[in-house]
Write a structure and sequence with these properties.
Strand content: 15-25%
Pfam families: Amino_oxidase
CATH class of the largest domain: Alpha Beta
Radius of gyration: 22 Å
Cofactor: FAD
Number of strands: 22
CATH superfamily of the largest domain: FAD/NAD(P)-binding domain
Family: Belongs to the flavin monoamine oxidase family.
Keywords: Oxidoreductase
Helix content: 25-40%
InterPro entries: Amino_oxidase (IPR002937), FAD/NAD-bd_sf (IPR036188), Flavin_amine_oxidase (IPR001613), Flavin_MAO (IPR050703)
Shape: globular
CATH architecture of the largest domain: 3-Layer(bba) Sandwich
Structural class: alpha/beta
């Protein structure tokens, strides 16, 4: 068994862990990054499937994501804008397909007025939320006791308005049924993007992509670390005391003064801690769980929807694929659509055969784009729920009441053990931007300790 000594051992080679490792090394500390998978990147994964480059994991860059934008620039990567010329598509409760431009769904004047009024109210509430300290709001406990769905239904009896308001943070972001998380958790999700309006604005939240794929961010960060990144090394045991940590992986042991857990909190229990983590952490981590969404990639010989004057942007809270976009790669003659199937719908389609699942999902896409959508040349489903070292998508969130009860303790170090990942972020929560912010924050914290 290979045994090495470092100043800091980092568990997880995603954006958070690699950012922290680079920052610590720049400051003169020695590091080792242990990664369970056979690749770096965590929930960022760009791969070629049947000749098509697909973003299996995260991919978009929005204009508020300063930490990610800075990192992309620092690594010398280029971005390109998502295709969005032409009409968007909305499908209503009776299956009527409507084309529209702008960010207001083609709903009745009454429903539009309700959506506008509640959106304004939500923006005002979100403006009072500090994304790094949502539990500090005077009404945090009250807002954490009521589900997102129940709160919306208390505002209006317009079901179409409720469904359209709900899915922005439900199916689209937290990827859980809207009765399963709180109003406070929903407000945090919106605050992390600057406002509720930002979160529902596809042109804002899904603005740009990286030429060649977003996994290049962790790949290039890992390249800078060279031999200090170790793949296929799941950490099984972490011994810790005031003197430091010992991380014991399958093929090596790292002794260090500090440790960083840079992986999703749902995976902490894969590590045996000696001594056990304190009671508070044992309780808290049981109230965090991953959402679940299938990201569906459909590649065609050409972007046929553009010929119909469609942007590729499509929404409906009544469809199996609740949203879909033009996801064509930079400079690619072929056209790619990406669709999303979330929470209960995702569970349901995994109960049928792969053939039937594909048929149902493509049928849903055809409701937006027409019958040609049923015949892609490449079809692939990103199923992060089946990934042993992820176990869901996009990220972890608290159950009802959990955020106000435990949120303040999420990032608190336990002795020499620190925590960093997108699931713990304020700004950039659940995004690569948040992972980078958390990597920087934890590196700064350790450097302060070292200099103290």
């Amino acid at each position: 068994m290979n045994e090495i000594t470092r100043d800091v051992v980092i568990v997880g080679a995603g954006a958070a862990g690699l950012t922290a490792a680079n920052q610590l090394r720049k400051a003169g500390l020695s590091v080792a990054v242990l990664e369970a998978r056979d690749r770096v990147g965590g929930r960022l994964w760009t791969d070629t499937i049947e000749g098509a480059m697909l973003e299996i994991g995260g991919q978009w860059v929005s204009p508020d994501q300063d930490a990610l934008i800075e990192t992309v620039a620092d690594l010398g990567l280029e971005t390109f804008s998502r295709y969005r010329e032409g009409d968007s598509v909305y499908i209503g409760p009776d299956g009527t397909v409507s084309r529209f431009t702008g960010d207001v769904f083609p709903v009745s004047a009454e429903t539009e007025a309700v959506i506008t009024e509640i959106t304004e109210r939500l923006d005002a509430m979100v403006a009072e939320i500090d994304p790094d300290r949502p539990w500090a709001h005077p009404r945090a406990e009250e807002w954490d006791r009521v589900s997102w769905d129940a709160w919306l239904r208390a505002q209006t009896d317009d079901d179409e308005a409720v469904r359209n308001l709900a899915f922005a943070t439900g199916s689209a972001m937290l990827t859980k049924p809207t009765h399963a998380f709180s109003l406070l958790q929903s407000l945090l999700m919106a605050a992390s993007a600057g406002s509720y309006s930002n979160l529902v604005d596809a042109d804002f939240i899904l603005d740009k992509r990286v030429v060649g794929g977003l996994q290049q961010v962790p790949l290039l960060l890992a390249e800078r670390l060279g031999d200090d990144v170790f793949l296929n090394e799941p950490v099984r045991t972490m011994e810790w005391s005031d003197a430091g940590v010992t991380a014991i992986a399958d093929g090596m042991t790292v002794r260090a003064r500090h440790g960083i857990l840079a992986l999703a909190p749902v995976l902490y229990n894969r590590i045996s801690f000696v001594p056990a983590l304190p009671r508070l952490q044992h309780q808290m981590h049981q109230h965090l769980s991953m959402g679940f969404v299938i990201k569906v990639h459909a590649v065609y010989d050409r972007p046929f929807w553009r010929e119909q004057g469609l942007s590729g942007t499509a929404f409906s809270p009544y469809e199996l694929s609740h949203e879909a976009y033009d996801n064509t790669n930079h400079g690619d003659e072929r056209g790619t659509l990406v669709g999303f199937v979330s929470d209960r719908n995702a569970d349901d389609v995994f109960r049928v055969s792969a053939e039937e699942r594909r048929e149902r999902i493509l049928e849903s896409l055809s409701h937006y784009y027409g019958p040609e959508a049923k015949n892609p040349v490449v079809y692939y489903e990103s199923d992060w729920g089946a990934e042993e070292w992820t176990r869901g998508a996009y990220a972890a969130s608290f159950d009802l009441g959990g955020l106000s009860r435990y949120g303040a303790d999420l990032r608190t170090p336990v002795g020499p053990v620190h925590f960093a990942c997108s699931d713990l972020a304020g700004a950039g929560y659940q995004h690569v931007d948040g992972a980078i912010r958390m990597g920087r924050l934890v590196a700064d914290t350790i450097l302060e300790e070292v200099r103290a």
